[in-house]
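User: Good morning. I'm curious how NAP would be positioned relative to this chain. Could you predict the structure with it bound?
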Amino acid sequence: MLEFNLEDIAGTSEVESEWDVAIVGGGPAGLTAALYSGRSMRKTIIFEKLAVGGQISVTDEVDNYPGIERIKGPELARLMEKHAKRFGAKIVFAEVLKIRKEEGGKFTLETTEGAFKAKAVIWATGAEPRKLGVPGEKEFTGRGVSYCAVCDGPFFKGKPVAVIGGGDSAFTEALYLAGIAGKVYLIHRREQFRAQRIYVEQLKSKPNVEFLLNKVVVEFVGDKMLKGLRLVDTKTGEESFLEVSAAFVYIGLRPVNEVIQDLVDLDERGFALVGEDTKTKTPGLFVAGDGRVKFLRQVVTAVADGAVAAMMADEYIREVESEGQP
Ligand code: NAP
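Assistant: Good morning! Here's the predicted structure, ligand included:
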């Protein structure tokens, strides 16, 4: 078994400015990249702007990570963080504002905690919840409108709430809310769901869940707090008002790739156009996780990306160093 001297790999308690591999984003992709990078004896730093774990840190339960039948999202995040740290990764809470590739080949990352240099960069910021963009949404965010059932659901114990969307997120979070709220309305703009069938069946079996299909939310209404939703039927055009104390919006994800937009090719929705090897058009920069084009966005595919990206970064550093740079 390999012996790791964590201090050697991670540096001391002072955050050094020169690293082998800089990972941006502390979700499953980033944490796995750090684990693999550390095991390759690369000095590895992770930048995370909010909370380690990414989307799983705001997910109630993960039930499809092989080998772990059921686990709370934040607990899985904690285990992944611990595992990455065991192999020496250093986590810094900072937002990366700019990335440049210097003449010599190294990358400079300008962050809210200062500038750092790295030989390779793994961009693993994933994606964030999309907004509906209708009147009242912004105004009532934090006052009834939410994008995180785990964070805000418990405030609405016994109350009527709505979940908007027809994908896995809407269904898994509606299942969670069904255990807390008095009533859960699942509002979806059509009759077919993207969500996996197992979640659809589970939600249908809940007595306090009602499906409102072919409906879109056109306005969030309230005074100090959200009072209800103005809905329009997509088939008949009929308007209605639904009284709810909270609305949880789960209408898909938006990639967080603005910082790297000049260094990578993006598709029309902003996802990085990189393949399974996670390589971008900028040598030494890799994109892993939900922020790249891919068929399936799940924890298992994110961690797979992270592992690949770390091995690619290791290979890249070996190659440039054998050529005498940087
Ligand atoms: P998603 O799969 O993209 O689904 C988004 C849903 O929102 C769709 O049903 C879509 O309707 C609806 N929608 C989009 N724009 C809308 C609008 N403007 N107004 C009303 N409805 C709108 O997104 P997600 O559910 O957040 O999932 C994201 C990824 O994470 C997926 O790959 C998913 O599989 C994965 N995930 C997996 C799990 C799990 O396996 N346990 C849990 C959560 C998420 P249409 O169907 O009509 O387009």
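The pocket of NAP is lined by residues 64, 132, 165-170, 172, 189-190, 194, 216, 250-253, 297-298 (CB under 6 Å). The chain has a mean pLDDT of 94.
Let me know if you'd like a different ligand tried.
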